[in-house]
Fold these 3 entries.
Entry 1:
Amino acid sequence: MAVRAAAVTTGGRPIVSPAHTAGASASWGYVTFWGVGEDGDNRWQLIRCYKSDCFSDDPHRRWTGWDRIRQLRSELYTQTMLAHTRGAIVLSASQQLPTPPPPPTLPGQCVPLAALTDGHPAVAYVRSRGFNHLQLSERYGVGYCLQGDSANRLATGRLIIPVMQRAQFVGWQGRYIGAADWKTVPKYWTGRGGHKSQWLYGLDDAIGMPFVIIVEGATSVWRLGSGAVALLGKSASHWQIELIEKHWRKAIIALDPDAWSAALDVRDLLARRRIGTVLLRLPDGTDPDSVGVDLFWQLAVEAAVSQSVEL
């Protein structure tokens, strides 16, 4: 396989179905192929949408990625061909590939938690959750945003949680300090250009473990330590499932109790990849962070035994 970038083109001009570019800027308006094969025309399975991951499987099973790809193929070979008369649609190298996004940066003026005084609200908050701010700063690089930049004003006054994958900084999440009405204030804020559907928080520390623990948020990773990864949400994207399949053959799914249907969806997605799973249902009103490490592992072992999965 020749690893090169290419785009769907007609007559050398990148094109894409309008259904997948509504509201998109020009730099994200292409359907881009990575790793185009040399074995004929069977290249559609390599398609990726870098704007919204719209060619992955829907976690609620309303469609599969292949359904979307077939829709795109139909549109390309009908509407687009009429619009570009006599222009054969090919999958080939393009001279007008999307401009790569700039490397991620922190959202303004940020400092490590270790640099804050003991009386600072951020330090008081993490301590109230049972964490040591010095350890979070040293091990996970957690910081605090003094002032967000113009694109990330909502980051101001939040914990800043860097996301590392393969020892590279790929983005961050900002966690609101304290409690609020989550219908009006986002608990977590991912800045512009952040693609959390492509991240597994805690991935680097978990690689090499015999199984992986899949949780929702970063605080659960902090509590459980190496071996846990966070989806940074309730559902798993195509990208995240691929990362899990690449590194593990067994998984404990430990989403929050209010995300039980999402946990079932994650189990089904992993089962298609033949990954053994333990589905862990925590007590209502808890999560892997608050339930406590000892009780978590007691419940995990009991679930593994009852589901006949050897960890």
Note: The chain is about 25% helix and 20% strand.
Entry 2:
Amino acid sequence: MSGFRKSVNNRYIRVAKNSVKISDLTFKDQVMSTVVGVFNLYWDLVSDIEGLKVKQLTLDLNTRQYNDNKRKADLGAIAPIDIIQAEAEMKASQQDVTTAQSQVLNQETILKAYITRSGLDKMSLRQHLSLGTLSWRQCPGRQCPLVHTQVRSMTPPGKMH
């Protein structure tokens, strides 16, 4: 009467239960990896937006310097070469702003594609950020609006605990 014991039949049940546990753990691992990926991409986007703000301020200052130098040269207070130097700095700042804008748009597209697979959204992340409906201040210790999960240890780029 070999093969008629309970243990023989229970073997398949144990294997099936172990397979379910493995599937659950694999799913949890995939979810955690996705959430970490979204957080990393989100903070990259925040960093790029902050970098764009800095480059825009630099452009404003260089434009002001160019206008001041132009006015001073018209009055004869400085040499005309100073106007050329200020104009070159202003043009370089304009190029930096354009590069930073494209970097922000690129990072936004990458994040959207990661979240939605299609990258299509009714309201862009940039609009959320500019409207203040999505910022790093909303995430620490609260529900993160991106993935609706509790976040405790997140810090914005450049900030340390």
Note: Confidence is low (pLDDT under 50) at residues 118-122, 131-161.
Entry 3:
Amino acid sequence: MKGLFRRSFRISLSFHVGLLLLLAAAGWWTGRRPPSSPPAVLMVDLAPPRPAAPPRERGYRPVPAHRIRRSTRKVRRRAERVRVPRADELRRILSEGLPPTRTAETPLSAALPDWYYAAVKQRLYEAWAQPPGSEVPPGTRVRAILTVQRDGRVLEAKIAQPSGLRLMDDSVREALQATTSLDPLPSTYAGNRAIITVDFVMAASPSL
């Protein structure tokens, strides 16, 4: 019985000693192996390529910002002056049948020019016999409206706002009746007839 126990003990001891020697040899062999290198990583740039800079012209050199100076010189342009003809010039032009020149590029207008209003007012004032200043105070006003055909014929002339003084109103009415034709409408006017308003104002003295 004792012999069987001793034999089992020896076998177990031999097994454990051999296992320890095998583990020690495995550890020694692992320590002598060179360390394995990490796997290589390949970097790939997926960004789109940058556009190439345009080629510079030969001889061109940009001016540095600190060398650019702002000019303080002011450029003045002369305003175009439009000369308005005088009353005597208007009478001469219209009497000769030569209205102010209009080129083919001048557009038609729905409004009469100022020089035509001045010519109509002068024609009516020449036909108006102002009443005596002793009976009509200066500044008395009468407004009249005239309808003028393209050829200058007066289709209608009436008093729109009387002054309330019979002598003043009658004098204006006589001037309107005496004026049956005016200068033809300007060629730049687009309509076939025009309605013109004229104010008769009593002056301090019976002068134009």
Note: The longest helix spans residues 2-32.
